[in-house]
Amino acid sequence: MRGILPAGKPVLCSPLILLFFLLFTFPFSIAFGSTEIYLNADKQFNYAENCFLEEEYQNAADEYKKFVFFFPDDERVELAAYKACLSLYRFGKYRETIKLCRRFEDQPDDTSFSQRASFLICRSYLALGMNGPAVISLNNLIMRTKEMSVKDMAKYELGWISLDHPIYKEEYSDNIKKAHTYFDRISMNGKKEFKIEDLLSELDNYQTIPRKNPTIAGGLSIVPGAGQLYCERYQDSVIAFLLNAGLGIAAYESFDNENYALGGLISFVGLGFYAGNIYGAVSSAHKYNKESDRYFIKELKGKIKINISDWIEKEKVSFSYQYNF
């Protein structure tokens, strides 16, 4: 067999060289053939779905992205793009989730997936402790979408964010008022679906939960430990009383024995602990109130909150209601 060199001169090609050439190129032809079989829309999507069902969320996100890239005209491309966002969210990559979901918000069409992407952005921000941007995300959705049911879900979620992820740290009553505002803005049909009348009735019980007055706690602490006792922190109360009493007795004995330097030093240290006793009592009152707030909301969630996660995280458009009596 003859071959052609670049210079154009004919040369003889031995059978051994021909055999080597065939053996060398054959595996590549098989590899390329298998790659073409692998890049099949159904197989690619099903593989991504299988990774998702197996909770291999990082792999699922990558495979959904590949599907979107290689099959942009497939009718499942929007679903795959959303499932990539959801996979990242479940994997805990919240910043990447936000970045990928932004592509839905940038689209001109208001679709079911773009609406749910806004909820994923909100929940990702909440997971990052960024409550402000989470609220902004849902308020933007309310302004953007025309579907009243979606607006109602966003307002319902915003109300619970006010309760469960408070923006106002000191006065929790401000968060209760904010939640009331969001719940009141829900449409009449939405109020029936979300049992808003019952929810607001339960919220009114907030005024009846036990609380401690920080001013009273500080005033009682004139007697060391009394403020902590008022706040039901019994161990702290005993420690504060014994520590301050012990330092007082030690200072008295030092002065009585005319050891004024030691007595002055102990008195100085004792004043610090005495002031700390008062500050600790005031702080205990605030902690008691915050714990009461958290317990109240936890009980309220378990009793009356309706779950919309099925709508956010499933392909179907409907969402489930969960109402516990």
Question: How would you sum up this structure, described in words?
Answer:
The protein has helices at 15-38, 41-53, 57-70, 77-91, 94-105, 112-127, 131-144, 148-164, 172-184, 188-193, 196-203, 214-220, 226-230, 234-256, 260-304, 309-313; strands spanning 2-4, 10-12. With 325 residues, the chain is an all-alpha fold. Among the domains are: 11-37; 94-195, no CATH class; 214-302. It has a two-stranded antiparallel sheet. A hairpin with a 5-residue loop joins strand 1 (2-4) and strand 2 (10-12). The relative contact order is 0.06.
In short:
The chain is mostly helical. Helix content is 73%, strand content 2%.
Distance between the amino and carboxyl termini? 89 Å
Number of strands: 2
Helical proportion? Answer: over 70%
Overall geometry: elongated
Biggest sheet layout: 2 strands, antiparallel
Mean pLDDT: 82
Order of helices and strands: EEHHHHHHHHHHHHHHHH
Any idea what the radius of gyration is? 34 Å
Which stretches of 5+ consecutive residues score pLDDT under 50? 1-13, 25-35, 316-325
What class, by secondary structure content? Answer: mainly alpha
| Count of separate DSSP helical elements | 16
Beta-strand proportion: under 5%
Order of strands across the main sheet: 1-2
